[in-house]
Amino acid sequence: MKPMCEQPPPTPDDPQVITNHAIQPPQGQASHVAVTHRAYEAVQYDFYIPTLIWELPSVKRFIERLDAIDPGATRFEGLTGVWRGDREGTSVYRKILRRDQFDPDRTRSALQEAVGQLMADLCASPAFAQDTVMFTETPIKVMLSAHREVHPPGR
Q1: CA nearest 107: which of 130, 135, 131?
Q2: Residue 8 pLDDT level (bands cut at 50, 70, 90)
Q3: Which of 13, 117, 124, 139 has the most CB atoms within 10 Å of its CB?
Q4: For residue 4, is pLDDT > 90?
Q5: CA distance 17 to 24
Q6: In which region does residue 72 sit, left (phi positive, over 0), alpha (psi from -120 to 50) or beta (all else)?
Q7: Per residue in 101-121, pLDDT tens?
Q8: Residue 121, SS3 per DSSP
Q9: Separation of alpha carbons 8 and 20, rounded Å
Q10: Rounded to an integer, what distance in angstroms lies between the CA atom of residue 139 and that of residue 149?
Q11: Largest Cα–Cα distance in the chain?
């Protein structure tokens, strides 16, 4: 049976663990699924963006620049940030990049360039100009679990 989710082969720095689990449908015989669990070192980047500016074209271009580095991210909406004692609606845009595929120093430089361009773009309108933009860079270990294969009943 072909794996349901293709993954690169394990390496000494990126071992995998396989667990097997029963699938019990409401009717019929149980089958089993094999799940591959892998861990890898990564860097998590969180960009804090006020809700006031989120829909602006300059912010959309900024997000496009981030996604050009590597597609995929998570947006956390409806948060409240406190900046200099004032509360403001905030979204956090989170990207996670594998350490073995992206050098953190080079990535940081690219991100600083993108943030600088965002700030320059926002300066075109005094109502939306930001005197500060914050992002964080955090080393993390990612745990990724994926279906490996499904075994029909009796196997």
Answers
A1: 135
A2: low
A3: 117
A4: no
A5: 23
A6: left
A7: 999 999 999 999 999 999 999
A8: helix
A9: 20
A10: 31
A11: 69
